[in-house]
Input
Amino acid sequence: MSSTLDLIRKRISANKFDRNRPLSQAEIRELVEFATQAPSSFNIQHARFVAVTRAADKERLKAVAYGQQKVADAAVTFVVLGDLRGHEKLPGILARSVQAGILDAKTADSWVGMANGMYANAELARDEAIRSASLAAMTLMVAAEAKGLVSGPMIGFDPEGVKRELGISDRYVPVMLLPVGHPAPGNWPRKPRLPVDEVLAFDRGREF
Ligand SMILES: Cc1cc2nc3c(=O)[nH]c(=O)nc-3n(C[C@H](O)[C@H](O)[C@H](O)COP(=O)(O)O)c2cc1C
Output
């Protein structure tokens, strides 16, 4: 079994997926269950997932994703959404932590007040939805890798078209498409990265 560090180094964005190896609903649910373990501000958990598995639906999605074939070839293409009004669910979410004895009720109330204040700013609410859903998507990608699957995060799609085709309301911002499945031959090898010295500064910012 590969270690997490090996998986991080091994992961690539796949273009080629095996069209003949579907994933069961149980396997898809497991991937999403791992994704829900990702952190989010106040534990709001803004990420939502629409798992597109039917051939006809994947073709419709491909049409609003600039014809990118992997959307149709992957066993499942997730539409990863961010809830723009995620903070409205915070009282119920924090009540679970209070119930579990992790948080006291007073702290929970103060977090709700803080979150309501912060996310009255629609721009910040959107930033947070995208941030949290992105972390959940990355967590899903690592889980997929650990299961011997590959993934391919995508921003190349028309968000309004995706919402229209799949009946997604304006409450949600489409954060990325994420095809996941078994690999087919022909994927790129891992691409070189910037050296650490070009991306890291200690203690103060600098012009990188
Ligand atoms: C937010 C995001 C959006 C991306 N959108 C696309 C896309 O629409 N189509 C595509 O082929 N690759 C897309 N990629 C994949 C990147 O090209 C890829 O991650 C990058 O080249 C590094 O390669 P690697 O992931 O294999 O290491 C996207 C990646 C990210 C993180």
